[in-house]
């Protein structure tokens, strides 16, 4: 599906415009403290005309061998905020009691981010740092998430391939 840049898009959002749309796909999860798993994911990235941010929402669920939904997994909601010189901020909130501020750069369909701040409620699991990569490859959105949590050093936790559905 070709990328169409909306005519009413704030010019500051042009480097991030490839994210706009609805995406769906599957991925793999792993971490030393859990069993490996497969997940399905839906992501919606939208904009508000005249505003220099993108709205981001992601939800995922555990899937079985046949690709059928087993149970809900993670949700996150946030805002992509472009900055000068192709820098970008991402602010994310999770219903598990975690809020993150990510800083990074966007370069021709690739985004690399690292956490600048992680805040969590007293009931949230211990999580201290993250690293995310997003890339548009032949029209698909690939992403990976490395994290440091529960006393472990930063290492891969999630990776997925999403296809544009709208």
What keywords describe this structure?
166 residues; mainly beta; ten-stranded antiparallel beta barrel; 10 strands; 0% helix; 66% strand; EC 5.99.-.-; metal ion binding
What's a concise summary of this model?
The chain has strands at 21-31, 34-47, 54-63, 69-83, 87-94, 98-106, 110-120, 127-137, 140-149, 155-164. By secondary structure, the protein is an all-beta fold.
Molecular structure report:
The chain is mainly β. It has no helices and ten strands. The protein has strands at residues 21-31, 34-47, 54-63, 69-83, 87-94, 98-106, 110-120, 127-137, 140-149, 155-164. Strands 1-2-3-4-5-6-7-8-9-10 form a ten-stranded antiparallel barrel. It is globular, with a radius of gyration of 16 Å. Belongs to the nitrobindin family. GO terms for molecular function: heme binding; metal ion binding; peroxynitrite isomerase activity. Keywords: Heme, Iron, Isomerase, Metal-binding. This is Peroxynitrite isomerase. Residues 13-164 form the THAP4-like heme-binding domain.
Biggest sheet, in brief? 10 strands, antiparallel, barrel
Q: Strand order, main sheet: write it out.
A: 1-2-3-4-5-6-7-8-9-10
Low-pLDDT regions: none
Question: Strand content of the residues, in percent?
Answer: over 45%
Helix content: under 10%
Gap between N and C termini: 8 Å
**Mean pLDDT rating:** 96
Helix count, DSSP H or I runs of 4 or more residues? 0
Beta-strand segment tally: 10
Structural class by sheet pairing and helices: mainly beta
| Computed Rg | 16 Å
Q: What is the 3D shape?
A: globular
What string, H for helix and E for strand, traces the elements in order?
Answer: EEEEEEEEEE
């Amino acid at each position: 599906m070709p990328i169409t840049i909306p005519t009413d898009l704030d010019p500051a959002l042009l480097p991030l415009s490839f994210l706009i749309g609805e995406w769906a796909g599957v991925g793999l999860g792993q971490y030393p403290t859990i069993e490996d798993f497969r997940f399905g994911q839906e992501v919606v990235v939208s904009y508000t005309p005249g505003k220099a941010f993108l709205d981001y929402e992601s939800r995922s669920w555990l899937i079985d061998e046949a690709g059928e939904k087993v149970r809900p997994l993670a949700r996150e909601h946030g805002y992509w905020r472009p900055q000068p010189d192709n820098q970008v901020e991402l602010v994310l909130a999770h219903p598990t009691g975690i809020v993150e501020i990510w800083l990074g750069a966007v370069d021709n369909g690739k985004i690399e981010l690292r956490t600048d701040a992680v805040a969590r409620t007293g009931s949230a699991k211990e999580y201290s740092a993250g690293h995310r990569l997003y890339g548009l490859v032949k029209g698909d959105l690939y992403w990976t998430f490395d994290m440091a949590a529960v006393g472990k050093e930063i290492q891969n936790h999630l990776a997925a391939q999403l296809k544009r559905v709208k």
